[in-house]
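Re: Re: token formats

Sure, here are both.
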Amino acid sequence: MMTRRNTLFSLGAISAALAGARGLLSSAPAYAAQAYEVTHTDAEWQKLLTPDQYHILRQAGTERPFSSPLDKEKRTGVFSCAGCALPLFSSTTKFDSGTGWPSFWQPLDHAVVEQSDTSLFMKRTEVLCRRCGGHLGHVFDDGPKPTGLRYCMNGLALNFKAT
């Protein structure tokens, strides 16, 4: 039997659940509160980056899997941040994860920072460029030896230079 008390209790529980979900679904970039070496206003970032790069690097977006040519890049070289040109990954640590995104088992020293990401009802580790705070992707613990890590990066967040 639905009473006024039960109805109010149910509405309160739903409200609390929705408030918690808002925090989990938030796509607000976590890097906004930190200071980085390379900084620009939002308008400057929009001029410097393509719309898709801006969505990924500055709004923590994700490109479609298998859409980046860098996923199949096999030449020797360095992958750098598309936002500030900081070298991030060596081609010697790249591997084909089968996920549709460029994957690496290790970043270059002092190239990235990692932080907790609880968006989309998941607990993941977000990977950001150390110099500009651009969102690169996420790191998972299902990669190959020697680290066992899979740095799953958005190709649009990276530039490649063959050496």
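Second one below.
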Amino acid sequence: MLKKVMVRAHELAKTFVGNYSARMSLALRQAWAEAKAPKAPRYVTVDLHSNKRSKTWVAAIIGTHPVYKLDRKFVNPVRYGSTEWELKAGIYEVCEAGKRYFIRVANGDYQRIDADDVMEMVA
């Protein structure tokens, strides 16, 4: 981590104007602040309900499809037989115990969205 902070400080110091030691001091403070800042989670864990009659699945919406309107790629659960998925930022179609809906994952959280909104975002 120290190496990354120093490299970032040198990158920042090159962009500042003035005495190099003063620029480096300011750049080090900024680089350490960036390194210590809380980072947004890379994945959001979604726990879905399942029943014996219907499968539960999650599919990433990756574009449009000429026949089926939306092109999708199925996402594997965390482990086989699990009802938990780790999802990156994006748009997903979810089938939870037979009920289908769309969610948008962003900023470490997810929310349900309408099919019309999905078509606008993908198109």
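Helices lie at 2-15, 20-36, 115-122. The beta strands are 44-47, 57-65, 69-75, 84-87, 90-96, 99-106, 109-113.
- S.
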